[in-house]
């Protein structure tokens, strides 16, 4: 059989840019010096002792060096000064009248830049954008997510936009020179979900239940704190109530909302690790444009949260890529890496692919998108290029012939290649066909990098009769390939049985 037609879009090459930086709080080690003061206290006192003219001169010099690297530097300085301000009482600064310049200078000393792409950029997913206004006939605007890897191999999620034209050619929009993190916003928590998650963690004990019984079906962080404080009235041992406090704070902090001003370009928006489950990285987001049975459209993404010791799948929800909700997942099937949600309900349920045994592909279903218990095996490694392990490369794509699933397989020398499955539309647990050969392999220009011999995707689109497949290579950069859908489906249906 002739080779499958595929076009690599050589004009689309995304490579890491170490100049893309965000601001982060910088709090030095809190070791206690012989004076009895912490390092933070000592530095603060030095800043407070500076004459006002020296404050102005120092701030002006710092601002001159850094203002062109950030969208709103003054706001970042004031935000980080506010973090330090919570510690002012430790250094006898309560009630101190600070000039705006001195406040911003405090922020400058306790701010550092973090290069979000310093190490790598890759593992993209692609969905049709919420706003299609002004797009030429036959074209579609897309949003692409990317895994950006910075210092310490910490991963965050970035975005790019572009157009797929009627001839399946790709035009990528230029990325902004700036990068910003979102603002966490308060929100209500779901007691039912808390109870479910604590049960999965085997942490639902008498103490936890005593806290939860004091809460309404939806509660705020302040109400949670009040219920925890009330434990003292129940005369529980401090060691027990302390562990309860730790677990509840961990769970609450892992579920949050973050938002960006809609006025800033989407390429500036960075989802940077914020909760404890993801403190060391947010990896491989698989975005999907989800259409409910009622026609409502939402965007979901599953990603791998890493805290330095363990990995957990988590969920992102957004309608506009400006306001995001991040949630933990529950259930025995919500485990390990690589969950991918189908783009619509099937028989009234959410359906997803996963690899919770770290080796095979499973299909899962649930009536609650945050709780996954039911799963069944649909694919085990068969071909030489996938014998080590399998996984999906993003959410299934609906075609008339079935659900098209891009997979990855690991073969000799830990070489990652991409393959494809075709699943039945009505019963996606039934495999119709499986490519006998890899769909995409690292070529000579893509095999060398931070992680050699790897191509990987987190999801593509179908447009203009083509599979448009963004992929990362060698943990260096990302590109896009296009494949005629009819050719691919013909191969998959001919392999049936």
What would you say this structure looks like, in words?
The protein is an alpha+beta fold. The protein folds into 3 domains: 7-17 and 116-182 and 260-494, Tachylectin-2, Chain A (5 Propeller), CATH 2.115.10; 22-114, no CATH class; 184-253, no CATH class. The chain is 20% helix and 33% strand. It has helices spanning 39-49, 52-66, 73-85, 100-109, 191-200, 206-212, 221-229, 238-253, 485-494, and strands at 7-8, 21-25, 111-115, 120-128, 140-149, 155-164, 170-172, 180-181, 183-185, 189-190, 218-219, 256-259, 269-270, 281-291, 297-306, 311-318, 323-328, 340-341, 350-354, 361-366, 374-379, 389-392, 397-399, 402-410, 416-423, 431-434, 455-456, 461-463, 466-473, 477-484. The strands form 8 sheets. It has a 6-stranded antiparallel sheet with strand order 9-12-17-16-15-14. Strands 1, 27, 28, 29 and 30 form a 5-stranded antiparallel sheet that branches. Strands 22, 23, 24, 25 and 26 form a 5-stranded antiparallel sheet that branches. A hairpin with a 2-residue loop joins strand 23 and strand 24. Helix 2 (52-66) crosses helix 4 (100-109). The mean pLDDT is 90.
Topology readout:
Blueprint: E1 7-8, E2 21-25, H1 39-49, H2 52-66, H3 73-85, H4 100-109, E3 111-115, E4 120-128, E5 140-149, E6 155-164, E7 170-172, E8 180-181, E9 183-185, E10 189-190, H5 191-200, H6 206-212, E11 218-219, H7 221-229, H8 238-253, E12 256-259, E13 269-270, E14 281-291, E15 297-306, E16 311-318, E17 323-328, E18 340-341, E19 350-354, E20 361-366, E21 374-379, E22 389-392, E23 397-399, E24 402-410, E25 416-423, E26 431-434, E27 455-456, E28 461-463, E29 466-473, E30 477-484, H9 485-494
Parallel strand pairs: 8-13
Antiparallel strand pairs: 1-30, 2-3, 4-5, 5-6, 6-7, 9-12, 10-11, 12-17, 14-15, 15-16, 16-17, 18-19, 19-20, 20-21, 22-24, 23-24, 24-25, 25-26, 27-29, 28-29, 29-30
